[in-house]
Design brief:
single chain; five-stranded mixed sheet; eight-stranded mixed sheet; 43% helix; alpha+beta; globular; 849 residues
Amino acid sequence: MNNPYRLDSAIKPSFYKIALTPNLKKFTFSGSESIEIRASKSFSAITLHALEIKITKARLRSAPAVAARKISYDGKLETATLSFGKNLKAGHYTLELEFTGLINDKLHGFYRTCYEIRGKKQWGAATQFEATDARRAFPCWDEPDAKARFALTLRVPKALTALSNMPVSKQRSLSGVLKEITYKPSVVMPTYLLAWVIAKLEHVERKDKNRVPIRIWTTPGKKTQAQFALDVGCHALPYFSKWFSIPYALPKLDMVALPDFASGAMENWGLVTYRETALLVDPKQSSVQAKQRVAEVIAHELAHQWFGNLVTMEWWTDLWLNEGFASYMGPKAVNDQFPDWKIWNQYVAGEYLGALHEDALKHSHPIEIPVQNPNEIREIFDNITYSKGSAVNRMLEHYLTEPVFRKGLSVYLKRYAYKNARTGDLWAVLERVSGKPVKAIMASFTKQEGYPILTARKRSQGIELTQRRFLADGSRDKTRKHWSVPIVAEAEGQKKPFFGLLRGSKTTIKAPTQGWVKLNAGQSGFYRIAYSSDLQAPLARAIASRKLPALDCLGLIDDAFALAKAGEIKTPQALDLLAGCRGYTDYNLWLTLAGSISAVEHLIADEELRSRMHEFGQVFFSPIAENLGWEEKPSDDHLTAMLRSLVISRMGHFKDQNTIEEARRRFDQHLTKKNLAPSLRGVVYAIVAEHGKDSEYEKLLGIYKASGMQEERVRVLRALTFLAEPKLIKKALNLAMSEIVRKQDGYMILGGFGGNRKARDIAWNFIKENWKELTKRYASGGLNLMTRIAEGATSGFTTESELEEVRHYFKSHPVPGAERAMARSLETIAGTVNWIKRDIKNIERWLSA
């Protein structure tokens, strides 16, 4: 089927020369470009992408030159058509254009960013072109397979730094206050990877072990926070060069912390851009959680320099070839540099379980999903593309073994370097290298949505496995989907795991008949397990006696609560399994336990029953809370600090008065002495907000306003979503819409209140009242933060009437590019409503007992 949003492939660019002159006072720019093109057939017009740009002159340089007689625009298709009034032969041409445009305030395309120097506001500009916003900065073939080389010239104020993908070729002073910077021509790449940043900047610099110069850029006064990022960059870049057996392709790498940035980071080749919280670490003020996030984001973006940049997906249908692989390769580099973080265990508790939860919805989508227009493209930058994509890569590597997987990826990247590829191209290479049925296995996980639940029953000859699609609401999939499932299992007393492959609806694997058997050992497979009672009982005993590895325990717990939500088992069965875990000390397991308890608490509307739930929470968490205490110890490792933060947070939420009073005491002391440990600040702020009044709100706001550190500001914003007083909730919502909070951060409050029982109705009404303004701010271009607001704000609803109200509102207030997010929200609410109807009495009896 022809896609009207695709340009005619008969005309392709090969080389752009672009010159831009931005005006940072009027927030406009003028530009000119010459584009070398090749037409494979005769033509009388050229259509290319242009959005919010006015082309003032267009001509083809040939013999003789031909000027465009008419320039017309299509706002829906985001194109400009240059009509020449005569038929021109196939061949090579140079298209010359002059144009003007806006430096917008929408955080995508060519946009403005502000920062302060000695209390005075300064303006800069930056770009964010993925997925389809290069067309807002210059007329172009804005599609991933229209790769070309780019030679950029910027005319900017002399006082500012201007960076782009490539090193500077030459620079000269112009009359007045401007300078002209010309950059070396780029390698062949798609438009969405072209980038530039213009601002007052300072940097730290070092060469990695391969002599590639790496610079970390910040706005003035913040370069002391750039050292950790430099250390990570100097490790990750050569790590990937070695892992892929392919050198980094460009002569330099710049990474820039931008005050205004919509997503976490963007992998522009040679000029990676970040939110400040994703790149900067203050040695004294940053938490261990923030430090880890910086390492993870940098590693993800640098993995993109190979997956996405060197080899680019042919069309956005295969976006996961970029994001799924960067999400899987990033943890490899982090784990290599920081092995004590046990990043793969954290990966399972975060990325892997997050993907399982989202892909259990009927409104999920295949990893490989056909998309046409920009709104559909933006919509697939989600957990399925990133997290499920990475999880199936992990499953494949475990199946093939790491050496084989690594060799296959290296062959693939070398074969398609500077070109475009599809998913099938990758499977073909891996199949050839491994000699295993890669395509048959992986296509079942990438070409269809969802995943299987394997029902395990003990038989005389082993364990019988049957499969069907797992759906979060417990319904049955009428299409009877099947997957080719690699099985790995461990058994009590066995030193080595054993393997199998489930191809059809049923198979039997050989297994010991005594002791416990844990299927999906290490949680490497993308599926869930439902055990028969005679298989479940030994596993429960192994958990209670701490004989089961924490990672396998984590998987059993999450499977149990997913089955309870789906009505496959009673919730008390899952709670019994959870209660047996209190002897463990693993952070990732406790993170999963905390999430499971929160899921059950979310079902409870009755205040007396909620009090019982809080009592259970206190009893369950108090032993580990007492063991960890509040004070950091010299023997603490990275994960211990994270566990302490988690446990204190839960004890405060469960209304443990000692925890609340200690949080208040430390907060008040911190206001004057600034001595609160960074890894506890977010937790303490949240407890104080949840149990605080006007004075606590004003103190938190004072911290926000006084801090020049974005990480600290984000801590405060997230803490405000725990407020319980109606008037304070309203204040926080208005704060989110004010100029005090950067546009990129407002969604944290607007969507964050959805999980707060006392705030969600107030927040939802506020969002409805401001829907028009919110869609204007957050719904167009970029990564559509409106989806996070809509999903977050409605995530806490639990009744039929709320479900119908939200359904009606979404139907009458559509947001292009948010359709799937809205459908997920409605499905999630409906699942909660059914879970309550089915199991709330059982939960009440369990808590009473």
